[in-house]
Amino acid sequence: MSTELIAILASWGIATLRSATPLIFATLGETLVQRVGIINLGTEGEMLLGACVGFAVGVATGNPWLGLTAGALAGATLSLLHAGLVLGAGANQIGSGLAVWMIALGATSYVGRTLVGQQVTPLPALGTDWTDGIPIIGEVLSQMTLAAPLALLAVIFAAWWLNQTRPGLHWKAVGESALVAAENGIRPTRVRVTAIMVGGLLAGFGGAILSVDYTQTWAQEMTKGRGLVAVGLVIVARWKPALVLPVCLLFGLTEVATLRLQSAGFELSPHLLGTAPYLVVLAVLVASHIFARRASAMPADLKAVFQ
Amino acid sequence: MPDSLVQFEGVTRRFGDLVAVDNASLDIRAGEVLAILGENGAGKSTLMKMLYGLYPASAGEILIHDAPDKINGPADAMRAGIGMVFQHFSLLPALSVRDNLLLSWPRTPFWKSRRNTDTADVLATLAELAPHIDPDCPVGSLSVGEQQLVELCKVLNIDARLVILDEPTSVLTPDEAERLHGFIKQLAGRGVAVALITHKLADVEACADRIVVMRRGRVVDIAERGARSITETVALMMGQSVERKLQRPPVLEKIVPRLVLENLSARRPEMALQNVSLSIAAGEIVGVAGVAGNGQALLAEVVAGVEPLTGGDVLLDGVSIARHNPYDAVATPLGYIPEQPRDNGVVGTMTLARNLALRELAQGNRPPVTGRDLLFRFNVNPPDPMKTAGTLSGGNIQKLVSARELGGQRQAVLACYPTMGLDLAAIEMVYAAMFAQAAAGAAVLWISEDLDDLLAGCHRIAVMREGQLVALLDNSSTLTREVVGAHMIGLTETEAAA
What we know:
heterodimer; A: mainly alpha; B: alpha/beta; Rossmann fold; 2 domains; 18 helices; P-loop_NTPase (chain B); ATP binding (chain B); ABC_transporter-like_CS (chain B); nucleotide-binding (chain B)
């Protein structure tokens, strides 16, 4: 294989990975939330708040890591509102999630006005003087930051947590039946609050990566529905953390492809082209339902939300 | 005299006006299999659920050896070494057998991977009891009998010294039941006490050391194995007849088939109907007797067009009224009193008036303005047509459904346990309405557990067992409850006479 082809593939791979990273965090977080039987449409709002707060702190301190941490904490704090409304006040989960989203949309639009056009210190690239000499690998590392490897680690950790640990088993049990879980001495509400906060933390972190690392700018409503896409991708990934990775990468790849087609002068309305990632994911969803005809992987208690 | 592990002293439990358990005294000893035998509603489950901490006793005391503290809930009971396997399992079908066992195991380590040797013990009981079950497959893919074994393993994993089994063989195939009987004996051999709640004499025959018979909330007999003949035990279970002022139905002058079941077959996951054939004439009342859970519920839903049938047909005056495939929509012309009418017969959020007019509403017609007359006639309390049905008590919902189904003349009536939860006066009122339907020419199919009532009110009695009609008896003056009872539990008449 020619070096040139490998270089092109590597460039596409990096672009895909970078585009998918914020989505991987958000989708992973929502997967964990849905596994305990809660749906959180506020993921969009948590990402947005994470992006806004993370960017502001990054600009103010000049330290991108502090920005990312602040974004994650902002997302977790906002998710507590959803937890309080749903578990404390017994609110409808869909309504509560939409409220969280709208609150974040309004607040970030207002607060974020001063952030437009600001510069943030980016995360350092992974490449060093030592690796720069290596062909292709050096090139790849110099274009990458720690964000993408962190996303991979998060996926592996979440899969291990759910499938190999006792608390993970408790989470799954709560998602299948809070009643049976309680009979076995588990406190479903405590588990659910924890999972919702972890979901908010990951969504906020993903949002902060979007503003601090990926685009390095702030714009009003900059998540453009990624949080809602994350809620949908959970279904495509069949509620399995391990499948979050390929599903988000597929979405990212299609996004990169449409951007590159546009810049290559492909003659189709950019608006139509922009729908391609959603169409591809929809096709995967339909296909996965046709080929996996066995019982749905949906947590049983989650079904109650829609009844 | 072996040590007693648990002692009931004059225990009573009331639910509102109903006395579910009445002054019961008995003891359970280590290493014995104690069968608690009785018909449905005799109070056997309630008695054991009190021991397990699900209901507090209204009066009396339950003493547990070596456990001075009061049992306030299942968690306390488990700590005292008492485990219970319910008819409805508390398993999560989506999770693997292993995960389900780990979930309730007190010794599950943080790292629960198979590679962690600390988790090996959780599967030890399963390997012994059911080596054929793959611990990695989801519980939902197991048969009901296998699920029960998993549930049993859960209980044994808490090191129980008393295991309560609630009707364990009602969901098992004969092979599985036999294996369970063997295992119960093995458990007792290890010194574990087993309380076996059952209404099947086969369970008692197979493994009981002592037999407690309960009827209408009372402990009527406690006997060692072999001290009573089968006939004596059956008589104790069913008790003396209650006097009811029921008029015997008039003898039919001519037989004109009206409601005809032709080779009915249908299946549900847990039950199958096989070739049920029955012809009911105009004016005739046919009772269906049987131990609960032998297909009566499925039969009723197939005849009423709720469940689709897989073979045969249901004809009313020669016209098919059954549901032939799941996509059919059938509005039954029968007067149909379903089992558990709160769930199956009323819309809880609608008013009584609208509930009385459900058929009109379903057809898009304007409902009649009020049903006050009907409510008074059937003694529904309160007789307020504007009240929502969900607020009524169980007995009044039963009367409301009777009012709708028996209030106007029908060609045929299908009544499932139509007197469930009613007091004596209401029972006679519902029977009178049902018999009036027959007197005016309706064919009546009446499913009941009350043999005395069936014997007093039916022209013929059909007996169901395991999804089949095993007998169709003419209700002459020589027919006794013992004969019907023998058919219900599968004894031949000679065995019953012995």
